[in-house]
Fold this sequence. Notes:
The protein has 4 helices and 5 strands; from the N terminus they run βββαβαβαα. α3 packs across α4 (112-133). Helix content is 42%, strand content 25%. The chain has a single domain (3-145), classed as 2-Layer Sandwich (Nucleotidyltransferase, domain 5), CATH 3.30.420.140. The longest helix is centred in the last third of the chain and has 22 residues, at 112-133. A 5-stranded mixed beta sheet has the order 3-2-1-4-5, with helices on both faces.
Amino acid sequence: MGRWLGIDHGAKRIGVAVGGMEDGIATPLEVLPAEPREAMIQRLRVLAEEYQVEGIVVGWPLNMDGTEGPQGRLARRMGRELSSATGLDVRMWDERLTSFEADQALAGLLTRQKKKRRQDAVAAAAMLRGFLSSGGPQVARVPGDVPPD
């Protein structure tokens, strides 16, 4: 069981974390600008190679009732794009409440500006920890296997 990159996909920023199935530990790495898209995808390719990951987990922002909204569809599209661009196993994982968890983890530790720059990577780590502790790829969805709305 290997390492995975966790991606907190956003319109402006992409939070990135890395973690391993063996120990379940996920560490925030960095926050990337979402645009230009090709530069962001290239950086994710470099990180995947550098950390020798076996796959990428994309945070899937579902609604509180479990349905998929517009942001969920964008995240799923990102998952399909990363699968094609990297050739890696890409999975989707419910990221509900990970931004709240990141806010709680950073509360009182950083200035507002520094917190904003770090929050997406911390949210990616929270999402990735959930993926790793729940069975990882055995239970997560592949982007192309999710039925459209």
